[in-house]
């Protein structure tokens, strides 16, 4: 980089500060995204993002590797350009804009390409400002001209000195007013090795733009062409990549990105709407739960008042009965202990009538007519469904009923009659003191079935809680006979317990055919047999019409019974029938 460019870059912070002081909006293409100031020696990273050279140098290395590389041409013996292979450490950094991994040349940020477009934007930014520009050389006078080669602003005195120096006499110096009127730059790109030399040639082997001195020394054996001759070919290649490949992809990416953004907006809108619905539901549900809570507390208070009034009434009745009985007892005892015979006999009538009336009073604790309510039957079931409140399902029910063993009932014939090896059923219904069925389960139910004669013969039972105050009991007796059935709730017998269960023997079904004779039912088969005592001559093993032993009416082939709707006769009866048709007495 030339000395003049260093002077220009050193002055840029001052230019930015002046623009900020005067409230002028800065062109973002002229500002580095790292330091947020006007570019100073802008360099292009391999990802095509531009930053100041110092900003790139200060980036934290992402990784460090050692690799060999080919150094640029140097002038060797005889003036020939010689390329050298060297080993150097390559530093990889992350681009501050796209977060891509990019390699920094071994020579550092100096080896990166300079972004001349960014320099143009920086200079244009200095032109559009209305603030006065100072001279970049002396720093005292106001700048009136600009050297397009050195890229410095000059006052009138420094401009004349710039023209008189031999090294800068040939530079193009333009008036700042003229540059502002044009609004654009025509700044030449100078060689970094030979300050003041414009890059007018292109070295094809090295694929680099060079100046005349570079072409005559370092690249003298290379094919160097004017930039005007190769710009079309290289520009067309860039243009083709942009037009054919990248521009359509860019459009597709933009459309896809737009769809994603629309989807994001729709998603956010849907989430917001759903969140509003959830909040509204929560508010409504909370209101319903609060209303249900108030209703439960109101019902509980009403229950308390009702039970309290009942206790007050019982208390008043008991106090009155106690007062009456105590008065009668004291009068009778005093009469008997202090009265004479005549006094006792004279007061006998009224005393006996009063004492008899008191003895026949219904308020007698021994008859369980007094059942104080201590509130033990009141319970809260938090998980039990309680219907709907304001359209919302709620749970939580207050139960105030308690089981009255004298009111519980047994439903079903299975508690009285059963069959051997057949499952029997009956249902226990728990009721309160008012005779109403309990609405919840959970009671401790005990069922015991024991044979009355064989005490070691018990029947296993299964109790199923229906959670509605009823309990289904099932059992399977293995032997016939009379059984005792105990039904207890909370270790107390229900009304009627223990029950008498009569288990009959298993009904024996017929396994044969109800026919007139085996000859007819089998189609004349000699091997057909019958359970009746009838026989046939000719080798037939069954019975036949009008033959010996035939019962003379339709009968079952399995047992010989003449009743169609009957049990099959047991084996003992069949064994009593002799092969000759004679019966012997058996005990059925």
Helix percent reads 25-40%
Mean pLDDT: 81
Low-pLDDT segments, ≥5 res: 1-23, 75-81, 366-370, 578-588
* Number of DSSP strand runs: 28
Helix/sheet category: alpha+beta
- The number of distinct helices, counting runs of at least 4 residues, comes to 11
Q: What does the largest sheet look like?
A: 6 strands, mixed
N-to-C CA distance: 132 Å
- Categorize the overall geometry: elongated
User: Radius of gyration, Cα only, in angstroms?
Assistant: 60 Å
> Beta-strand level of the residues, as a percent range?
15-25%
Task: Walk me through this protein's architecture.
With 588 residues, this protein is an alpha+beta fold. Helices cover 34% and strands 21% of the residues. The chain has 11 helices and 28 strands. It has helices at 3-21, 53-57, 116-128, 156-164, 176-182, 212-216, 227-338, 341-346, 348-359, 518-521, 571-575; strands at 42-44, 50-52, 63-70, 74-75, 81-82, 85-94, 101-104, 113-114, 145-147, 152-154, 173-175, 201-203, 208-210, 224-226, 379-389, 392-399, 409-411, 417-419, 424-429, 445-451, 458-459, 461-465, 470-475, 481-489, 492-493, 499-504, 514-515, 555-556. Helix 7 packs antiparallel against helix 9. The longest helix is centred in the middle third of the chain and has 112 residues, at 227-338. The model is unreliable at 1-23, 75-81, 366-370 and 578-588 (pLDDT under 50).
């Amino acid at each position: 980089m030339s000395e003049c460019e260093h002077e220009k870059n050193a002055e840029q912070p001052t230019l930015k500060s002046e623009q900020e002081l005067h409230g002028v909006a800065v062109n973002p293409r002229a500002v580095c995204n790292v330091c947020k100031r006007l570019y100073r020696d802008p360099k292009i990273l391999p990802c095509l993002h531009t930053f100041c050279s110092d900003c790139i140098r200060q980036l934290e290395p992402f990784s460090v590797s050692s690799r060999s590389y080919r150094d640029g041409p140097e002038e060797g013996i005889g003036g020939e350009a010689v390329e050298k292979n060297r080993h150097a450490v390559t530093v990889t950094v992350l681009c501050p804009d796209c977060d891509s991994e990019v390699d920094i040349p071994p020579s550092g940020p100096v080896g990166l390409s300079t972004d001349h477009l960014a320099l143009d934007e920086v200079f244009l930014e200095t032109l559009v400002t209305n603030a006065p520009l100072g001279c970049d050389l002396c720093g005292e006078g106001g700048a009136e001209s600009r050297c397009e080669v050195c890229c410095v602003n000059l006052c009138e005195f420094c401009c004349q000195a710039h023209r008189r120096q031999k090294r800068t006499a040939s530079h193009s110096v333009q008036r700042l007013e003229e540059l502002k009127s044009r609004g654009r730059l025509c700044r030449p790109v100078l060689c970094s090795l030979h300050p003041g030399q414009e890059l007018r040639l292109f070295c094809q082997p090295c694929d680099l733009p060079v100046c005349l001195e570079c072409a005559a020394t370092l690249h003298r054996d290379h094919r160097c062409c004017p930039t005007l001759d190769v710009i079309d070919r290289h520009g067309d290649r860039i243009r083709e990549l942009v037009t054919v490949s990248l521009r359509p992809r860019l459009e597709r990416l933009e459309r896809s990105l737009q769809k994603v953004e629309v989807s994001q907006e729709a998603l956010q809108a849907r989430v917001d709407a759903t969140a509003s619905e959830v909040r509204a539901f929560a508010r409504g549900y909370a209101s319903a739960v609060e209303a249900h809570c108030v209703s439960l507390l109101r019902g509980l208070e009403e229950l308390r008042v009702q039970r309290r009034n009942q206790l007050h009434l019982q208390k008043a009745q008991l106090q009155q009965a106690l007062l009456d009985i105590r008065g009668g007892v004291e009068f009778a005892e005093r009469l008997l202990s202090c009265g004479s015979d005549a006094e006792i006999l004279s007061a006998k009538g009224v005393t006996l009538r009063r004492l008899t009336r008191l003895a026949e009073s219904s308020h007698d604790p021994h008859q369980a007519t007094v059942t104080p309510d201590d509130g033990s039957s009141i319970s809260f079931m938090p998980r039990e469904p309680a219907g709907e409140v304001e359209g919302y399902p709620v749970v939580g029910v207050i139960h105030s009923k308690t089981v009255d063993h004298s009111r519980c009932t047994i439903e079903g014939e299975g508690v009285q009659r059963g069959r051997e090896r057949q499952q029997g059923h009956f249902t226990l219904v728990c009721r309160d003191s008012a005779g109403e069925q309990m609405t919840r389960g959970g009671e401790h139910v005990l069922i015991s079935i024991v044979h009355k004669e064989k005490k070691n013969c018990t029947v296993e039972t299964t109790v199923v809680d229906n959670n509605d105050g009823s309990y289904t009991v099932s059992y399977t007796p293995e032997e016939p006979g009379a059984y005792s059935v105990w039904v207890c709730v909370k270790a107390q017998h229900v009304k009627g317990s223990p029950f008498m269960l009569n288990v009959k023997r298993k009904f024996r079904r017929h396994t044969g055919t109800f026919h007139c004779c085996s000859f007819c039912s089998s189609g004349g088969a000699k091997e057909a047999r019958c359970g009746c005592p009838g026989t046939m001559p000719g080798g037939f093993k069954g019975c036949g019409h009008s033959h010996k032993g035939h019962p003379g009416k339709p009968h079952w082939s399995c047992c010989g019974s003449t009743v169609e709707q009957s049990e099959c006769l047991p084996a003992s009866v069949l064994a009593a029938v002799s092969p000759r048709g004679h019966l012997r007495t058996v005990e059925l």
